Amino acid sequence: MKHLQTGTLLAATLSTGLMAGLFAAFAYSVMPGLARSSDHTLVEAMQAINKAIINPVFMFPFLGSIPLLGLTVVLAWRGHGRPALPWLIAALALYLVAFAVTSGVSVPLNDELAHAGDPDHIKDLETVRVHFEAKWVTWNIVRALLHTGAFACLAWALIVYGAHRLQENTSTNASSQTPAPDFHASAFGLRDAADQADLDRKREASHHAHDGFLHAAGQQMLRRHDFNPAERTSTNGT
Q: Do residue 156 and residue 203 come from a single domain?
């Protein structure tokens, strides 16, 4: 589950970033360049671009980002990425709005430009350009910002998810490395304590016996001194 969640999040971030970069490139490079060109050049170039861009390299990340983002939300809700969930939901919402802009505004404008026909046979190229250019450029900037916002949310979600995974792994490693209680050591400790107590009792008994022996010997010497007739006669004679 964790590997699937990580892989899906990375894939969604990559595909969303590709879309953000594509539409941003149109906003700050392609369209400003065509704005400096003639009416014929702009119409011809945009018709050619709109035909060429319908290919698997574009369609896969453009359409595939939506199920990928939906899957990241589901996996985060059911898995280990709850802290990143708000950012994933925000990314999905922004991408859906950007997709709606492309489907509802940009694609119809592209279709109208294609239906205008061959630029060499269009009588009023200026009118075709005016009807297409300003609106297309404005809404392309909008969708570029939306895709960039979705990419930023996913990038931050990756950071939050990675930090959460690191914290989980650290906690798991710390708990696995906690030493288990050493019952054998405890048993030996109790045995050592019992042996020490027994030794102390023996020492105390030995001290008592030694003191008793000295006391008895002293009493015996006193009795011999008091009741020895030879010693008493010698003392009286003196």
A: no
Residue with tokens 């950012």: 87
- Burial of 136-155, coded b for 16+ CB within 10 Å and e otherwise, reads bbebbbbbbbbbbbbbbbbe
Residue 180 counted as domain residue:
no
Give the domain range for residue 60.
2-175
Name the nearest CA neighbour of 140 among 20, 8, 236, 4. 20
Average pLDDT by consecutive 10-residue portion of the chain (238 residues)?
88 98 98 97 98 97 97 89 92 98 98 96 95 98 99 96 78 61 47 66 67 61 54 43
Q: How far apart are CA 65 and CA 81, in angstroms?
A: 19
**HSE (side-chain half, CA atoms, 13 Å) at 122:** 19
* Same domain, residue pair 132 and 195: no
User: Which parts of the chain fold into alpha helices (H)?
Assistant: 2-25, 31-35, 39-52, 56-78, 85-101, 107-115, 125-176, 183-227, 229-237
pTM, two decimal places: 0.71
